[in-house]
Amino acid sequence: MAERRDPAAELTRLLDIMAALRDPDTGCPWDVEQDFASIAPYTIEEAHEVEDAIQREAWDELPGELGDLLLQVVFQAQIAREAGMFDFADCAAAISDKLVFRHPHVFGSESRDKSAEQQVKDWEAIKAVERAGKAERGTLDGVALGLPALTRALKLQNRAARVGFDWPGPGDVLAKITEETAELVEARDGLGPEAMEEEFGDLLFVMANLGRHLKIDPEQALRRANAKFTRRFGAIEAELAAQGRRPEDSDLAEMDRLWDAAKAAEKATAG
C-alpha cells in the first residue's frame, strides 16, 4: 500500500484547488462557466465509471475513479458556496447527521439484536419520517427522476409494494408479461409508433417487476448481458480478423456459428 496520507489535509487541498479553478479572475475559464445543471451529467458519468472499475475488479483504478466522483461533490459544493447557498461542510454534516439518525441501533439506545427483515422495516420507518419532513406525501414521492430507468422502475415498484400494491408472486408477473407482449404486437401491427413505444415501455416496466420478484436487480442483469454481448461479439470480430475479414464481410449465418462457438468456449472455460 502507498504511504498513508492525511485525509483532512488532502480534502482541504482539493477544496482549495477547486476554489482556485473557479476564481473568476485567475481560474480556468471552463470551470468558471459551469453551473449545477452543466456538471450534473458528469456526476452521473463518474458514478458509472466507479461501478465499471468495481465490476472489472480494477482495484488499481478505483482510487482515481472515486477521486473523480469526489470532485463532482466538491465542484457542486463550490458553486453553491459562491451563491451563498451552502458549502462542502454542510454536505458532510448532512450525510453524517443522516447516518446517525438512521442507525439508532449503532449510535443510539436501540438494540442491535434484530433480524435483517426487522432492520429493513425500521429503516423504512425512519425514511418515512424524513420524507414527512420534506413534505413528501405520496408513496412514490422522492424517487429521483435522474436514476437509470430500470433502477427507478424497481424503486417505484418497491415503494408501491410496501403499501400492498403488488402481484402475489412471479407467476402473476409472467402472465402480465404475456399480456403486455400481445399488446405490443397489436400496437406494432396497427396503432402507430407512439402506441408502440408506450407498450414497449410497459413491457420493460413489467420485466423490471419480474426481476424484483425473482430478487434480481434488472439494471445489474442488463449490464451483465451487455458485457456478455460485447465479449462474444468481440470473439466474432477476432475470429474474422484472423481470416483477414471484418463483420461486414461475413453474413448472419456465419456470425451465428461464430457466436455459438464463443458461447460454447465460455461454458467450457466456466465448467
TrEMBL record:
Gene3D superfamilies hit by this protein? MazG-like
**In this record, what's one Pfam family?**
MazG
**What InterPro entries would the database entry show?**
MazG-like_dom, NTP-PPase_MazG-like_C, NTP-PPase_MazG-like_N, NTP_PyrPHydrolase_MazG
NTP pyrophosphohydrolase MazG-like domain: from which residue to which, for each copy?
Answer: 34-107, 173-232
Q: Could you tell me what reaction this enzyme catalyses?
A: ATP + H2O = AMP + diphosphate + H(+)
Keyword annotations for this protein?
A: Hydrolase
**Which terms does the UniProt entry file under GO BP?**
dATP catabolic process; dGTP catabolic process; dTTP catabolic process; dUTP catabolic process; response to stress; TTP catabolic process; UTP catabolic process
* EC number in record: 3.6.1.8
Any one GO MF annotation of this record: ATP diphosphatase activity
Record-stated family: Belongs to the nucleoside triphosphate pyrophosphohydrolase family.
Could you tell me which PANTHER family the record lists for this protein?
NUCLEOSIDE TRIPHOSPHATE PYROPHOSPHOHYDROLASE
NCBIfam families assigned to the protein according to its UniProt record, in alphabetical order? mazG, PRK09562.1
Recorded protein name is Nucleoside triphosphate pyrophosphohydrolase
Q: What is the lineage of its organism?
A: Bacteria, Pseudomonadati, Pseudomonadota, Alphaproteobacteria, Rhodobacterales
User: What gene does this protein come from?
Assistant: mazG
